[in-house]
Amino acid sequence: MVGLQDIFNAVLKQHPYLLHELPCAWNIQLSENTRSQICYGEVSDLKVIHWNAPQKLKVKNKHVDMEFFRNLFLTFIEYDGNLLRRELFYCNNEKREKYQSQLTAIDEEDPCYDFRRARVVVHRTHLYYIDYEYEPTLDGTDVTLVAHLTMDRLQMVEAICKHWEGPVSLALYISDADAQQFHYYVLNSETLSSRKNIGYHIVYKDEQFYPVNFLRNTALRNVNTPYIFLVDIDFLPMYGLYENLRKSIALNDMDIHKRALIVPAFETQQYRLNFPKTKADVLTMLDNGDLFTFRYHVWPKGHAPTDFARWRSTTTFYGISWEADFEPYVVVRRDVPEYDTRFVGFGWNKVSHIVELDAQGYEFVVLPNAFIVHMPHAPSFDIARFRSSAQYRKCLTVLKREFQKDMVKKYGNRATKYLLD
C-alpha cells in the first residue's frame, strides 16, 4: 500500500523547485540519538518540536530542556477543547447556521427547553482515537459489540474483552483531560493494548445531559461488520458469545430476513461473581438466588416478553411479540434504524428504538443458549435526576408522547398501537 508521504516524495523528486528548505530548528526530533548539538545552541532557537508519539514523554535529551517541553505539552493536551467552539474562533459555515436556526426554533419558555436543546447540540467527536484494525471474515457473519460509556465504567472494557474476542465499537463521553488518562490506561493495559479490533470514538463533554443515543449512533455508524450486537457497557457476555452469535446469525438467515436476535439478560447483586460458563450454570444460579432476570424487581416490563420461563427449558430459537416498554439487547443487521436522539439522560432511550424496529416489521427471536449478565454498580447521575426531579419525569413523558405520534406519522395505522402505552 502506498502512503500519502510516498506520493509527496515522488512528486517532489520530479519537481524539486516546489521545495523550500527550512533550518533544522523547524523540526527538532526528540530522541537520545539525535545530533541536536549541530542544529541549535539554546532552547530559544527552537521553532517546532517533532512530538509524534506518547513515548517521547519519557525521552531524556541532554540538548533540550525536556522538563519545560514536557510540562508545556501536558498543559496543552488538558485544555478544554470546547473553548475553540466559542466566538474566539467564529466560523460562519452551514453547520453553524443550521444549529443556530434549530436553536432559535426552540421556545425558551418551554419547561422542557433543556431537553430539546440537548437534541440539537453538535458534539465534538474524535473517531478512532486509538489505532484500529479489522480483517473481514469470509462467511459474512461477523458481528461487532456496540456500547457507550464514561470514565467511571472504563474498567468494564477490560472485563468485556476477556469475554468477547470479536470486534468492538465504543463511544466514550469524556473531557479533554479524561481523554489523555484514557489513552494511558489503554496503553498500560495488557488486555487492551494487545487488541486492535476495538474502535474507540470520543465524544467530548459539553452538555448537562448524557447524550446516550447520540453516543449509540456514533458507535453504530463506525462498525465494519455486517451485524451488530447492541448492548450496554455494564453487561458481561457469556464466554463464547461471539461465536454463538455468528452461528445464530447464519442459522436465522439474517442476510435475507429482518430479524432481531434477543440475548436474554440477567443480573447479579454480587460484586465478586463466579461467572456462569453454561446455561446450566445460569439455571442453577437462578434457583439459588445468585442471579435474577434483569430488572425483575424494578422494571419487569422491560424484559418480560423474552419469556424467561420458556427460555429455561427450550433448546431451539423461538419468536416473541413486541409489548409496551420492551427493551431487550439485540443482534441486528448494520443497516438498522438509528436511535432517536431526542431521548437524553435516563428513560426511553432503548424502548423507543425497539418500538421503531417493531414498526419496521422486525421479527424478535430469542436465542436459547445465549446470555449476558449485568454487573452491579452505583446509580448514574441521570437516574438520580430522574428519580428526584418531577420536571425531569414530566419532560420525559412529553418527549415519549411526541415520539409515539411521530411513529404514527411515519408508519401509519400499524403504529397506532404505540399510542395506547
Provide a concise account of the structure shown.
By secondary structure, the chain is of the alpha/beta class.
H/I helix tally: 14
Radius of gyration: 26 Å
Biggest sheet record:
9 strands, mixed
Please report the distance between the alpha carbons of the first and last residues. 56 Å
Structure notes:
- The longest helix has 22 residues, at 390-411.
- The protein has helices at 4-14, 66-77, 94-104, 113-120, 155-163, 176-187, 190-193, 212-221, 241-251, 279-288, 308-313, 351-359, 381-388, 390-411; strands spanning 28-29, 49-50, 125-126, 143-149, 168-174, 198-204, 227-230, 235-237, 259-262, 265-267, 292-293, 318-320, 330-333, 363-366, 372-374.
- It is built from 14 helices and 15 strands.
- With 421 residues, the chain is of the alpha/beta class.
- The radius of gyration is 26 Å and the shape is globular.
